[in-house]
Write a structure and sequence with these properties.
The chain is of the alpha+beta class. The chain folds into four domains: about 50 residues, no CATH class; about 100 residues, Phosphorylase Kinase, domain 1 (2-Layer Sandwich); about 210 residues, Orthogonal Bundle (Transferase(Phosphotransferase), domain 1), CATH 1.10.510.10; about 35 residues. About 50% of the residues lie in helices and about 15% in strands. It contains 16 helices and eleven strands. The strands form three sheets. Strands 1-2-3-4-6-5 form a six-stranded antiparallel sheet. It has a three-stranded antiparallel sheet with strand order 7-9-10. The longest helix is centred in the last third of the chain and has 23 residues. The radius of gyration is 25 Å and the shape is globular.
């Protein structure tokens, strides 16, 4: 979650970026060296993004403007739109990520979907959702929107680079799940949850972005008409079957992501699987239990090492509660999954706190095992006292 200090760092970094952008290399280095470490790191990230787009700038597009925004360079091309790094400076300095419909996709239906995204984003206000800064239409009548620029890495890469363990990965994804819950409360379903749509900033704040194929739900549970669009590897069974989309679709999507973050393996097969194979797996075959995901893989040691452990220990960590929690989120029938993303997140919190998870079959043996796990020291002491009492009793009888 962001705090006032982080906001201050971000503001100072954007100011430093603007100053460094127009400076020669020596002066730029001096400006960065004079700043605090946090501000310098964030400003350097902005400069790096600008430099990556230098080829775009050399074409003469730097002078282009969209509304009050000056286009600085390209940040990438998505399924629907071009994304550019932009700056607004008439009234105040501000950096953003501008998104427009790709020129080769401008049709009435695509433009309608783009406006749906803009409407969806306007409803959202959460510190872990990249916020909408501005929106409008070009002189040609094409819509655009400007998002908060998130200088970060996809969540899976961020975790692997820092060798985050299973508990650390769960703690990182929980704010994203809270952001998703907030979106659902505003009748917005994301429908395209994948690592590249969840960036972690340099200060460790995860951000959910790209509502490019989001749907707006009607209060009665229906959804706004949009073109069927999805990323097949992260799609739910109902998306593949063109069935009604609900918040349960996002429960499944975040379930796929959590499974992948924890196991290092996609529940629907490797990246080189064909779309047909992925669809067959999603619709017909249950994913392997999380604790079995690494079985038989030649890269199991490397995957486990990225989680700060060994393959046997990772399997042991995932065995039991996490197996059941993930299997519940990934059930093919929407009505058999967690009822809400909040219920899914609550079970993950329960796991972290060694409390019984709601997805597990209720039994006194299971609850007793969770109690012992939460209270290892006290339980061990009680066991020793009980054992001592039995021994003392036995000696007394023998005497």
């Amino acid at each position: 979650m962001t705090d006032p200090r982080q906001q201050s760092v971000a503001s100072a970094a954007r100011t430093l970026f603007d100053a460094a952008l127009d400076a020669d290399p020596n002066e730029r280095r001096r400006l960065l060296d004079a700043a605090s470490d946090d501000v310098a790191r964030e400003a350097a990230g902005l400069l790096d993004a600008w430099h990556r787009s230098s080829g775009f700038l050399e074409t003469g597009c730097a002078a282009r403007r969209v509304g009050p925004w000056q286009v600085l360079g390209s940040l990438g091309v998505g399924g629907m739109g071009d994304v550019s790094l932009v700056r607004r400076g008439e009234d105040f300095e501000q950096i953003g990520a501008l998104k427009r419909v790709r020129a080769d996709l401008v049709t009435p239906e695509v433009l309608a979907r783009f406006r749906v995204e803009r409407s969806a984003l306007a409803r959202l206000d959460h510190p872990n959702i990249a916020r909408l800064i501005d929106g409008g239409e070009t002189t040609d009548g094409e819509p655009y929107l400007v998002m908060e620029f998130v200088d970060g890495e996809p969540i899976d890469r961020w975790c692997d680079d820092r060798r985050l363990d299973v508990a650390g990965r769960i703690r990182l994804i929980l704010p994203v799940m809270e952001a998703l819950r907030s979106a659902h409360a505003r009748l917005v379903v994301h429908r395209d949850l994948k690592p590249s749509n969840m960036l972690v900033s340099m200060d460790g704040t995860p951000k959910l972005l790209d509502f490019g194929i989001a749907r707006l739900l009607d209060p009665d549970g229906g959804s706004s008409p949009t073109l069927p669009a999805m990323t097949p590897r992260y799609a739910s069974p109902e998306q593949l079957l063109a069935e009604p989309v609900t918040t349960s679709t996002d429960v499944y999507g975040i379930g796929v992501l959590v499974y992948e973050l924890l196991t290092g393996v996609h529940p629907h097969g490797d990246a080189d699987a064909s779309v047909a194979e992925i669809q067959e797996t999603i619709l017909r075959r249950p994913p392997a239990r999380a604790s079995d995901a690494l079985r038989g893989r030649t890269d199991s040691a490397a995957i486990a090492a990225a989680r700060g452990t060994t393959a046997p220990r990772l399997s042991a960590t995932l065995h039991g509660d996490l197996d059941i929690v993930l299997a519940t989120a990934l059930r093919k029938e929407p009505e058999r999954r967690y009822a809400t993303v909040d219920a899914f997140a609550d079970d993950l919190r329960r796991y972290l706190e060694a409390r019984p998870v709601t997805a597990h079959a209720d039994s006194w043996q299971y609850r007793a095992s969770r109690f012992i796990r939460r209270n290892r020291v006290a339980s061990a002491a009680a066991f020793l006292l009980a054992a001592g009492a039995i021994v003392t009793s036995s000696l007394s009888v023998a005497a």
